[in-house]
Amino acid sequence: MNAYPTASTPRLWVFNPGHEEALSFSREKRYTLSKEIRWMRHELSPLLRLLASGEDLIYAPASPEGIPARLLNAEGDDLPAGCDLPAELSVVLWGLDDHIVRELRECPLFDSTTLLFPPITPSYLRLSHRRASYDLLAYLTDQLGYPSDLLPRWIEAGVDRSATELRLRTAIEGIKSRPLGDPTRVLIKRPYSSSGRGVFPLPLPLQEKHLEALIGSCTRSGSVSIEPYLEVVDNWALEYTRSESGEVSFFALSHFDTLPSGRAYLGNILTSPEDLWERLTSLMGEEALLTLINAQCTWLEEELSDSQYTGYIGIDLFFYRDGERLRLHPCVEINLRTTMGVLAHFAYEQYVPDGRKGVFRLERGPRQQPSQSIIPLLLTSSEAHFSAYIELEK
Asked: In the predicted model, is pLDDT for residue 10 greater than 80?
């Protein structure tokens, strides 16, 4: 079931990955997206047809090379020129941020249409900061007994360079002294980032050039997270929905792959919800999974009690190697937005034949050629910067 049920007012679906970084810039400032993110927004917007229905529209932003913004129908096809738009459109953003709101308000495509935007509340901003992942992990450590050595150290920039350096050095030494993680490196994360962006390993012993870069990053962003570098074996996410009444409910499991460098998203395993549940419970036990889901729902409901946010929430998990054992990290990051795992869920429902399995792939470069095992999800040219497709298991 879609977290955004079909309403009387048609919806405008907007794909704006990278919105977390935009949250670190005030609404008064002009935020410049990287070229890569702009190409992602331009080329991958048609994927939102997996969520759209009826009279819904999809907004495809302009490309970095000047191809203008355009509107698509719920099937992902270009809307004919001169087509009348609904008097009102309820805007459904991939992720909330003031900069995409400004872009839509200023877009001439909507001169004759009233756009209804979701509110961006203080609690939404608080939970979009990586510090919220720390808070949830601390809650799970206290309530469910997960190891406290998983907890990151949050370092706020000091009053000057020397104060920042001292805080960073002290935190790194503290993380390095823990029995958990790789002693030759730690993991650094910027506060507003996700899906591998703003995440980088810091080699140890600390070199001057790396220290300077870290001090600069902490100063610019106001803070950084320093945490143990773990040997990740298997990536999962728990997908939730939040209703208008404030209830947070479990929606689906997501089993995904990442690139080794930066841990960026690569693709999702496509199989039945029952099979995903069986796979995950074989690793951690069903009672432990149900207890974790209940605890995360409770925490999210409390933290969002004064929020008007409705939609998807994803919490990433992974299994890591600790000696000869596999252990669970129960909260790597919180994604207060639609996720690739949600798209993969609907791609499985809509495209994968009964009894088949596959992989939802998002890659750089042109698409794989269609075949009996490859189902393209985008109509792209040989010059495309990104492609999305389903690869069925043979």
From this structure: yes
What's the CA gap between 233 and 146, in Å, rounded? 18
Residue 329 CB coordination number (10 Å): 21
Over residues 128-152, the pLDDT tens digits come to: 999 999 999 999 999 999 999 999 9
Q: Indicate the DSSP class of residue 21.
A: H
Closest CA relative to residue 150, chosen from 126, 120, 186 = 186
Cα–Cα distance measured from residue 71 to residue 58, given in angstroms and rounded to the nearest whole number: 6
Determine if the pTM surpasses 0.70.
Answer: yes
Which of the listed CATH numbers 2.60.40, 2.70.98, 2.40.50, 3.30.470 matches domain 123-143+232-351? 3.30.470
- Rounded-to-integer distance, Cα 99 and Cα 28, Å: 9
> Alpha-carbon distance 321 to 317, whole Å?
13
User: What is the Cα–Cα distance from 389 to 46, expressed in whole angstroms?
Assistant: 12
Residues 160-191 as b or e (16 or more Cβ within 10 Å = b): eeeebbebbeebbeebbebebbeeeebbbbbb
CATH 3.30.470 intervals, the chain: 123-143+232-351
Q: What is the DSSP string of 340-385?
A: HHHHHHHHHHHHSPTT--EEEEEEESSPPPP-SSEEESS---TT-S
Mean pLDDT of 40-56: 96
Place of tokens 């209703």: 243
Whether 93 and 18 have beta carbons less than 8 Å apart is answered as no
Spatial contact of 55 and 129, defined as CB atoms under 8 Å apart: no
Angle at 15 (CA atoms; ends 348, 331), nearest 5 degrees: 70
DSSP character for 195? T
Q: Angle formed by the axes of helices 131-144 and 286-303, to 10°?
A: 130
